[in-house]
Each structure stands twice: as C-alpha cells, then as structure tokens.
Design a protein that fits this description.
Distance between the termini: 52 Å
Structural class: alpha/beta
Number of strands: 16
Shape: globular
Largest sheet: 8 strands, mixed
Amino acid sequence: MNKEYLSVIGVGYWGKNLVRNFTELGVLHSVCDPNSDLLKQCQAEYKITKTYFDHKELLLDPSVKAVAVATPAVLHYEIAKAALLAGKDVFVEKPLALDVSQAQELIRIADEHKKILMVDHILQFHPAIIKLKELIHKGDLGKLQYIYSNRLNIGKLRSEENILWSFAPHDISVILSLAEEQPKNVKAFGEYYLQEKVYDTTMTMMSFSNRLRAHIFVSWLHPFKEQKLVVVGDKKMAVFNDTQEENKLILYSHKVHWVHRVPVASKGEFEAVPLEKKEPLKEACVHFLECVANRTRPRTDGKEALAVLKVLNQAQEELDKGD
C-alpha cells in the first residue's frame, strides 16, 4: 500500500480536524468537498495537491484505499455505501446513518466485501474513558448504580440535525460500553425554541438490567460549556469533566452508613486519577489505520455504531410522540 492512501470527504467544521490528523500521520492522499473555498483553505494550510469536488470521482481513484467521511449526517449512509462498494475501508463521523436499516446494510456490505467500517465515537478513545473502564472492570467502583452526562454549550447551532443527534451519540456510546448491554427501556423529552422541529434541548433516560439507570442531558442553549460524565457505584463515584485542563477524572470515596435505620452520607477524600496526555481524535485515527493495516475489527465498528443508533432512534420516537 502506498504511504498516502486516505482521502477525507467533507472538510468543513469537523472534517478539517481529520485532515490535520491524517496529514500528521502521513497518510493523507487527497480531500473532497463541493465547496471550492474549503478546498483552497486545505491546499494552503496542508500543501494538499490533489482535490475533488465530487466523491464519486474520488472513489474511482485506485490509489485511494480508505476514506474518512465528515459530511452532514444525512449523507453518511450514501457516501459510506458507495465507498464500501468501491472497495475502500471507511471511517465515518457519527452517526453511522440516520436509520437502523441503513446501518445494518452498511454492516452487511462491509462484512461481505471484507472492508473496515469504523465510526468516530471519539470518547471511546479518550484517556479518561479508557481509564474509567479499566477501573470499573477492576471493581474499584463496585456495582454501577447510576450514570449521567451533561453535554451543554452555547455555540454552533445546526439546522440539518437536532441536538440529540448532534451531541448525544458520544455519550450514548460510552454509557452502553460501561453498561455492556442495550437498555431495556428508553425515554426522552425535549423542546425546540429556535427552529421548528429542531430540538435545542433533550433529556434521554435509559434503564438497564440490575437496576442500572442513566440519563443524558444535551443542549446548545446553555450559558457555558459543560461536558461532564458522572458514574455512581456502590463503592466509589467517578467524575469525568472534559472541560478541565487538568484532573479530568476524579474518584470520590463517599459512603452511606445506616445509623438507627437512617441513611447518613459520609463524604470521603477525592482522588485525581493520572492520565496520559493524548488527543482522542488522533487516537481514533491511529486506531483506524491500525485496523486497516492489520485487518482487525475496530473498537467502534459498525455493530457498536448500530447499538448507538438504535438508542438514538428510540429517543427520537419518544420526542416525536411528545409533539
């Protein structure tokens, strides 16, 4: 395989980060986008010589062995399918598709053609999440009881997808990996204020076996940025705060004692967990390239993405019921 064999399709808001990482990793062959201004920016910043306006033309290039898709979500299925059928390995931004049947089709095509299909559920490659999962598997937190996440901001507003589809997939992916199962039940509610039928804030609630429950609160109408995941176990509690520069993962040893049949909280010491300094997106890109080179199944493969999509679809159905 040639050293430069990967093309990024879609080089806008998030795609430019993929361009940067794959350039630094020495594998970027070309970029593709219908916006000529974005292509010129890439050419100027990363000295890219080969560009395409149309992904169909790009997929005819035999020197391109893999693609990274960072287009609007509504195009993920169409482009990923075309790339797989053209014999390319595929890295797709979340979500894999907008419909469960479409995701299932992509998985089937990838399996039949023996191609790598990976979705960029970026938190799965965050050093804090990797360490948190390790602590849970070791039993440090004890039995998991409740998980909740807040992903809130005031910033980029979208019209092509609502806040559930824009913000929640990463947290759903992490929570499913911590629970190690699909939820028995999914409930959701929210509201739209800026654009008709485009939800600006949603709350998604999941219940699992063994009485584990979780909720995800997402909003782009929030006065400040907050990205926080809290995991409550019967031994310890963990807080992952991604807006912190340091001490992103903290363990709390709080206990509850029963005194005369009355529960009394006893606050324990907190412990900052040491973490490696790594960029999650770069780690995801490296993982994809390793899977391509070794023909191994990605950590966030099509089946993992399908599990996330099923929860998204269930939550969306709940939102639709509320209208």
